[in-house]
Amino acid sequence: MALWALFLLLAAPVAHATADNCSSGQLPFSASVTNSITSTQVAGESANGSTTPVSITINCTSNWSAEEGTTCLNNTKWSLSPSAGNVTTTAFPNVFRIPNMPAGLGIQVFTGGGTAAALNANRRIDTGVPLQTGAQTLPLQVRIVKLDDSVAAGTYLLKLLVSCQDNEWANGAVAANSAINLTITTKLVTRTCVMSNANLPAIAAPWWRPQAIPCFRFRICRA
């Protein structure tokens, strides 16, 4: 082969997936969620009021199968991944840590069937919905889980990107347009207990046992 022909071959641009074969009118999705965690909640329980429904419909042209077929065929599902860093596992099944989450908190995602989503082979949160031509809907629920007592009150942004292996975005060619943005405010509630007398009226005792029934004491817990 002539040198000039070899040069042209090496200089030719490499074909890349355009990653713009899908679109969604629900993305980017944004919501604000306020939840609370009481001092009596144990690790592994979800924060009160933290469950957030997210339903996304995605439309894809048939071009995705030709351009992204090597990574998105074979029943590959839509997945969720952080905008930076990696998803990490916790001591609780299918509860994960996302970069930028405060200490002591994790995230759990439920699919349309109510099943807690697991990580796929590429360590992304698997929605269970395969990429296909035409319309497809991702019915999800996101909730926050208490991991331990290190959790602190505060507000933070949880950003998840919807894609097929970061190769075919759910809404156009720009990753940020395929984001689920959740602004989450977590409040800590301390529960206190006080002792209180029932103050029941004395009951007249029969003549053979001249004494009143003692009053009772019980705990009243207030959040």
Automatic annotation (TrEMBL):
Q: Enumerate the InterPro entries for this protein.
A: Adhesion_dom_fimbrial_sf, Adhesion_dom_sf
Q: Where is the signal peptide?
A: 1-17
Q: Superkingdom, according to UniProt?
A: Bacteria
Keywords per UniProt:
Signal
Q: Does the keyword Signal apply?
A: yes
Looking at the keywords, is Magnesium present? no
Recorded protein name is Spore coat protein U domain-containing protein
Organism listed in the record: Variovorax dokdonensis
